[in-house]
């Protein structure tokens, strides 16, 4: 078994080790999944915003705040992805050596922000859409609509923190 692991650790694909590829895959997954969730959440909220604005144009600026909130998960995934690129020195021009276990560690470290970011952005978009309907009917309730929408954000922030701490705990 040790011989198989040694072969995998020393294998090169496109001039990179398997560990380096896994690290880059982790960064990509963090950015892609959280970005997909954010675009879905912002889109859901935007559809509702368009409908509510046609009925009550005075609340359009309040609706914009609600529409922007699901975009933050994409930002969180982007931040973790950039941290991986900085830690591996990809942005410095010459990627550091990353062994198989370090690469796996980075990949696993990116999963919280990727998965939670994906799901929470979509759920936050739904809550934001509901808050827009509330705001359209009762503009004075926009603060409560924003508060309800921000509550979903809490879990994305936790996932960002966990991914950030895990990525930075891996010594390269």
Our estimate of the beta-strand percent is: under 5%
- Unreliably modeled segments: none
**What name goes with the CATH superfamily?**
lithium bound rotor ring of v- atpase
**Helix percentage:** over 70%
Classified by CATH, the class is Mainly Alpha
| N-C termini distance | 25 Å
Backbone shape: elongated
Mean of all residue-level pLDDT scores: 93
Pairing-aware structural class of the strands and helices? mainly alpha
Q: Report the major sheet.
A: 2 strands, antiparallel
Number of helices: 6
| CATH architectural group | Up-down Bundle
Give helix and strand order, one letter per element, not per position. HEEHHHHH
Number of strands: 2
Tally of distinct domains: 1
In CATH, the topology is named Four Helix Bundle (Hemerythrin (Met), subunit A)
**What's the arrangement of strands in the largest beta sheet?**
1-2
């Amino acid at each position: 078994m040790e011989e198989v692991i040694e072969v995998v650790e020393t294998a090169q694909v496109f001039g990179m080790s398997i560990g380096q590829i896994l690290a880059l895959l982790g960064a990509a997954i963090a950015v892609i999944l959280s970005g997909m969730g954010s675009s879905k959440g912002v889109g859901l909220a935007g559809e509702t915003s368009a409908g509510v604005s046609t009925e009550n144009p005075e609340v359009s600026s309040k609706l914009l705040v609600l529409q922007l909130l699901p975009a933050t998960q994409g930002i969180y995934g982007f931040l973790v992805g950039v941290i991986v690129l900085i830690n591996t020195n990809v942005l410095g021009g010459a990627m550091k050596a990353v062994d198989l276990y370090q690469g796996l560690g980075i990949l696993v470290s990116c999963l919280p922000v990727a998965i939670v970011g994906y799901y929470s952005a979509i759920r936050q978009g739904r809550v934001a859409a509901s808050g827009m309907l509330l705001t359209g009917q009762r503009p004075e309730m926009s603060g409560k609509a924003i508060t309800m929408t921000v509550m979903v954000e809490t879990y994305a922030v936790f996932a960002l923190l966990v991914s950030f701490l895990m990525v930075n705990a891996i010594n390269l």
